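User: I'm putting together a teaching handout on how multi-component assemblies are represented. Below are the sequence lines for each component of a complex, exactly as they appear in our records. Could you produce the 3D structure of the whole assembly as structure tokens, so the students can see both representations side by side? Please keep the chain order the same as the input.
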Amino acid sequence: MTIDTQQALFGFALRLGDTSLVLGHRLSEWCGHAPELEEDIALTNIALDLVGHARLWLSLAGEAEGQGRDEDRLAYRRDVFDYRNHLLVEQPNRDFGHTIVRQFLHDAWSVELYERLATSPDAGIAGIAAKALKEVRYHVQHSAEWVIRLGDGTAISRAKTQDALDRLWPYTGEMFEADAASSALAAAGIAPDPADLRAAWAARVADVAAEATLTRPADGWMHKGGLRGEHSEHLGYLLAEMQFLPRAYPDAVW
Amino acid sequence: MYTQGLDSKADQGAQPSPRLVTDNDIRFQERIDAEEKIEPRDWMPDGYRRTLVRQIAQHAHSEIVGMLPEGNWITRAPSLRRKVALLAKVQDEGGHGLYLYSAAETLGVSRDELVEQLLAGKAKYSSIFNYPTLTWADIGAIGWLVDGAAIMNQVPLCRCSYGPYARAMIRVCREESFHQRQGYELMLALANGTAEQKRMAQDALNRWWWPSLMMFGPSDDQSAHSAQNMAWKIKRFSNDELRQRFVDATVPQAEFLGLTIPDPDLRLNAETGHYEFGAIDWSEFNEILKGNGPCNRERLEARRKAWDEGAWVREAATAHAAKRAQRHLKNVG
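Assistant: Of course. Below is the structure of the complete assembly, with chains in the same order as your input.
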């Protein structure tokens, strides 16, 4: 299937916007409940950055689509099957270890992506990426440091963190999966082929896992479906909570 | 946010005990009277230190517990702009907690000790956070009323005689006044919105009005430590003075919103220029102080749960830091 550049931009921005929004939502669930005050502040801050990125991407998606949908229309009035986020980021928080491992696996990907997008010939994409890059560099540093602390901490923390890594690993393949939008933009030289991010991501993950004394899981079967709207059961509840007010009061402006 | 209960007679922590006035006391009071700032290494009376530790700790705890009722609506904020604003606000409150705990630490207590007191139910935090946030409008009402009341209390604290506290409060106040404007703007959107939104806004005002007035603490005639705290310039205005200022500032704001303040006795006294308001139901306030508010249990349980479930994380961080230090020693040795 070939699609035109505007359609591709729409799909691409939606994928990044939804992924940022859903992960930001998950992190915001920690607010007030983190293991220590500094982490409460840090996780809330990262959530804030991610929701900020989501606003930029969703606004860009709305413009590319050209049907008058703004960031809120896209965030609050789409059901699960129209969401295009990676399955990784909708996985529940479970405990701090799962949250941090999920974050690191995502951050290590997003820093590679944004570094490449920052030099995109598309000014809209490059602008968002340049802004986001400054923030995701801090995010990956934060999450990597915690993976190392937890992995190379106590026996309990190591076991919990290894469990999180094993459990979340099968969700990492999707980040490198191409779809019609990414293929069209890659062909036009506007965005990288997602597969091209894998080597740098894998190297960073391997380094951090080694320092954390964790065993990098083998690449076996990988979950897929987020890119075509086939999600885990978790996303429906997340959206029900997030979208409650605009759905309950459809005429209201907030 | 704000801490109250400081002047409650039930609170015995800093009751000044009768003792001899020493030369140190006299010199200390002269410095205070000359508006000099007292710094951590300076001599200070035990009562002054105790009062400050208690007040700053209560204030810090209030910031931390206050993250819960507002955090309750982050995942349900009705627009991304509102979500980002609320995240930033709650993050600010965590930051206030951090530097207030640091200010308390300059007086010789550790943050861990203070947190333990909170989790053990031995420390106070502002009773306002024992009320639930039931609708989105509560987020607006907290910003407008609760932060508004907090600012009335806190602006004078920027001139508190204790330097580290006064300096922390300057930053806190700057951020709180931003939160207050944001809260009012949120209420304005509701008040100008659909009939359902307006109803939501009125309902929130109905529930938050009286608790906000109670934030200033008991009436002056019921207040235990005001005189000493005023002399020490920890406190600059009485509870009733500040409460009156808040009412005078807030009533016209409610009128502008087209909302009704839930007080049939409220009227402007043309002679004084002040609003007179009805009697506060202090029995409700006292019940909440005793732990019988709608959310007292939930708030402390949430803090304890976060602390207990985070224990393995803190232990891991400590263990890792020790391993690192050991490796470093080996490398240099």
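A couple of points students might notice: The longest strand of chain B covers residues 267-268. Chain B touches chain A through 48 residues (CB under 8 Å).
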